[in-house]
Amino acid sequence: MGIEEYGGGQGPQPDVLVVTTNDVPGYRVQEVIGEIFGLTVRSRHLGSQIGAGLKSMVGGELKGLTKTLVQTRNQAMERLVEQARARGANAVLAFRFDVTEAADVGTEVCAYGTAVVVARE
């Protein structure tokens, strides 16, 4: 499969490449496996809601909510990569996030894309 050498991130190279584009320069798609997703729903913490309410009156970044959203997006992406790996993919193309309110009790984050097998050209 051989994508270990691709990527400009820090640390070890990923075994599943995730990109927002429809292709990867220098690689060709050998197989399209299909749509995959990683989903998580996070409830709101009462303390962060109170703090956010107070902060919204004076303006500024809602750091507690920002931290929670980053953690939630990371978890959704990890689940997406797990699903790609389980289905035999070594890349995910057209990666996106979808964020919605879940019945006024939390935030739903869905990471989705197309699982594929790519190889160097």
Automatic annotation (TrEMBL):
<protein>
    <recommendedName>
        <fullName>UPF0145 protein BN159_4066</fullName>
    </recommendedName>
</protein>
<comment type="similarity">
    <text>Belongs to the UPF0145 family.</text>
</comment>
<dbReference type="InterPro" id="IPR002765">
    <property type="entry name" value="UPF0145_YbjQ-like"/>
</dbReference>
<dbReference type="InterPro" id="IPR035439">
    <property type="entry name" value="UPF0145_dom_sf"/>
</dbReference>
<dbReference type="Pfam" id="PF01906">
    <property type="entry name" value="YbjQ_1"/>
</dbReference>
